Amino acid sequence: MSLDVICKDIRIGIIERSFTAGKNSAHVGGSLSSVEIMTVLFHQVLKRSQEDFDNRDRFILSKGHASLALYCTLESAGLLTKEEVDTFEQNGSHYTAHAKKDVLRGIEFSGGSLGLGMSYAVGVAEALKEKGSPARVFVLLGDGECNEGIIWESLMFAKHRSLDNLTVIVDHNHLQADGPIETVLDTKDIAAKFTAFGYNTQTVDGHITTELKAAFDNLMEGTPNAIIAETVKGKGVSFMENKTNWHFASLPESKYKKAMSELTA
Amino acid sequence: MEKLDLKSYEGLGQAGAVFSMHLPDIIENYPSLRILTADMSYIAKLERFKALYPDQFINVGIAEQNLLGVCAGLSSEGFKCVALAQATFISMRCFEQVRQYMSYMGYPIILIGLAGGFQLQFMGNTHYALEDLALMRSIPGLVVMSPADAGEAVKCFQEALKIDKPIYIRFTGDATNLVYEDDYDFDYKKSVCLKDGKDITVFATGSMVSYALKAAQLVEENNRASVKVVNMHTISPLDIEAINNAQSSNLLISVEEHHINGGLGSAISDVIASKSNTPPLLKLGIGMNYSEVGDYEYLLKQHRLTPEMIADDIIRRYIQL
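The joint structure predicted for all components is written out below.
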């Protein structure tokens, strides 16, 4: 199956579960923006085998509200079943708006509180280095999440310790809960900030899987890496694209049908 | 476990006993142990340890929140982590990280709050840790310890390594606090009755244990009442049995170098609130206000926490019964 087909299926999965979540609502916009990033990671980048589980590459979702994209990606990779993901945001489900750590299923971190996955990822990278493990750590941040001070504490530490087994990906979709990042807290030129912190920083179109793959193939040794993925919040569903109100929303039937007709066209 | 020479820790203070003496003695038994700090190795008396075992030491810089994240990541990969910074900052600046990593995710990090209470004297109110017990005991599953002297700080540290749970240990007092001269059995679930007495039971923690012992002596010298003194070295889980046993007293007292709201006294009142016919509880501690800055004694006097003032307050309440 081509990556583009997988991405499309994941988007359909996100819309389906956003609809079944009903009034509980879902973080649909920021899930749709990160689909290609997670797809490329789970289908082309992350090394993971049962025989050498301790040395698996770790993916840490720090922008924990994109859990729905993670669940659907894990389903596409065979780590979760459709039935499990279908319980999204149902009472008592393990699969809620913020994923809970379950390493056997590919969930490396209990997300929800922004910034905390970044700091944890740095600790994991430090530990793996110290153990001499070849495993790598990939952590996905939101651009709004980069408002959090702990992000920058962690970035400084990883550089100081030369954690070149760490790659930070920013889903740069330009919107946060209250609006465009430029109007909420202007974090102009995130790439320059990472470069200034000593990261080997690449900027790519976060919806072109080949560009993402090329960036993951081009990580530098000796220093931590950053990939700024330029993305569109709500990507793939015309009326959601670049719209703040789809950050966290419930999907009425009419909108659900419109979204599905676009995605299945 | 090998017997400890508690006398050898005398005069070192709690951080000195644990980090300059005990830790270098035992570290070779714990190859996966990592000591992490937020730029506070000097006041933690870690200079000797750092020089001897640089590979087991990590300084994350002045970044308490990231300190906890790095510890959690290391813990997830099998390292045992000790995180230390001033009690005020490690309990407040990264309160949420403590809940997330140590409680919700369950990593058994040993958190050390240095210089609890008024220990930072002329640094002023930003540096006094008077809320840490309240905060830490509100977190599910966190063990909260507050040792009485340098020897007991070592006992708490040993226990923390043994029980392998998420733990906060609060260091208080100065090098003059001395309660224990001989080694003793330590169990974090059991408080220690240091002195028996039938009329009044004083529950004390941390630096106030030695003060409570002196105060009890002063009360008895006035022939007012016989006083029992219990060292509540662990605030959470609280030794409920010790509180139940004190129900035969006529008066309960709590003494702590912590705000009177939220610490040991509050923890005891949570237990007795549902009892019928419980003796009253007088909570002694630091008032809910900011202090005039000064030396340790000056600060404690403002809050009536010298042995003489504690004894006066106990007597005053006792004669009202």
